[in-house]
Amino acid sequence: MDINRLTRLSEFAWRIEPVDGMRVPVIIYADEILLGEMDEKVREQAVNVTMLPGIVGACYAMPDAHWGYGFPIGGVAAFAPEQGGVVSAGGVGFDISCGVRTLHTGLKREQIDPLKKTLADALYATVPVGVGSRGHIRLDHAQMEEMLRGGAEWAVRQGYGRSEDLERIEERGRMAGAEPEAVSVHAKERQRPEMGTLGSGNHYLEIQEVGEIYDAAIAASFGLASGDVMVTIHCGSRGLGHQIGTDYLKRMQAAAVQHGIVLPDRELACAPIDSPVGRDYLGAMCAAINCALANRQIITHLTRRVFAEILPDARLDLLYDVSHNTCKVEEHLVHGRKRQVYVHRKGATRAFGPGHPDLPKAFRESGQPVLIGGSMGTASYILAGTASGETLSFASACHGAGRAMSRHQAVRTWGGREVVDELAARGIIVRSPSWRGVAEEAPGAYKDVHDVVIAADRAGLARLVAQVTPMACIKG
DNA sequence: ATGTCC
């Protein structure tokens, strides 16, 4: 990105003034190097978003931002319904409520190391992974409706997990406002065989070791110490969320025309929050959030079953579960006044700071855990929400490394077998049904996640707490 | 991300 087109606010913040149809500014959080590597498309897309009706504050880009469908991935934008604010399917993303949850095994590296291969094989055999992977659960119509309304709370009721898990999930495991009737029959049919499956692309299940600690007090309050072994699950709402995205994109294109909304880009299709299509989408999207929460809950249950057989002492207590593709109604300060706004976070993690009333007691002092997944074979990071994030980004932070190279380019550059061998030489076991998938996800195809989280920390979006490094990765 | 093109 051309740095000369931006006004520098600080070492880690850049601004584009609102001109030519922009209703609010764009603010990008990144250091000069990350900004230099960022695609011009991020600037163009963020500028386009500021032209949508009812946008408030600014359109924000996180340090891991890259080119997405309509909205940049790593983008945050909030809209006010009383100002004709809109909701956009492209502003949430196709993998609705894709997210990350991290579990504490309660074990140290030395206890896991001799059984790493056994665990990787057993997890790979138990958790369905890959394109079109199918699970063992088949929900009938009534169960599907209950799942879409109940989320992880429903999953726990079905025996997939523990009631104490729910405290450690955004929305306490159940997103209010879900309307299963706003979800097409086709979307539900696609989801029927896919409950409890990991999917493909950047989704994974990883065994990780806590490495460096950056904030000792918060790490201790999260129960993290160097050498501890964690399990992280990264996946979303599978076919259901994707189909909802497809269904509503079409309806929103018509709705935008009908409501006279001028779209700078067709991909920004949207509908007023207070309109039939807008309300239906929000109901369907909340149902997809519940689907993703239930999905991660079932995979957690499968993971615990595997550990119970191999390492019966493993606790696998849930640290936290975050979603990074959502639109949520939240109260935020807009020009110094508290207002209810619809915050789109696409490839951006909610990062509520200390004292936020929606956080469970365990995180009232520290701020919520912000889980940042790296690429396969690189570190992941655990951060904590800050008070400053509220005014900087509607309490949002980055979500991952962000691609530096297209999938196509990655496949031309590496072979899957080569990537697996290289990682094995570094002690990282990879199990995947797809060599191509592994090549697409080669660590070199991603930006350096370390630079991304440093930028997020220095910009004040979230506070660095701990680094975790991979031991074994089950890859879709 | 995705029954990687209805």
UniProtKB/TrEMBL annotation:
Positions bound to Mn(2+) 2: H234, H324
Region (Disordered): 177-197
Names of the cofactor(s): Mn(2+)
Keywords attached to this entry: GTP-binding, Ligase, Manganese, Metal-binding, Nucleotide-binding, RNA repair
Annotated positions binding Mn(2+) 1: D95, H203
Catalytic activity entry: a 3'-end 2',3'-cyclophospho-ribonucleotide-RNA + a 5'-end dephospho-ribonucleoside-RNA + GTP + H2O = a ribonucleotidyl-ribonucleotide-RNA + GMP + diphosphate + H(+); a 3'-end 3'-phospho-ribonucleotide-RNA + a 5'-end dephospho-ribonucleoside-RNA + GTP = a ribonucleotidyl-ribonucleotide-RNA + GMP + diphosphate
Coiled-coil features, chain-numbered ranges: none
Note describing how the cofactor binds: Binds 2 manganese ions per subunit.
EC code: 6.5.1.-
Record-level Gene Ontology MF annotations: GTP binding; metal ion binding; RNA ligase (ATP) activity; RNA ligase (GTP) activity
SUPFAM superfamilies tied to this protein: Hypothetical protein PH1602
Active-site residues, Swiss-Prot/TrEMBL: H399
Family annotation (Pfam families): RtcB
InterPro entries per the UniProt record, alphabetical: RtcB, RtcB-like_sf
One Gene Ontology biological process: RNA repair
Family according to the record: Belongs to the RtcB family.
Designated name of the protein: tRNA-splicing ligase RtcB
Organism annotation: Methylocaldum marinum
Encoding gene, per UniProt annotation: rtcB
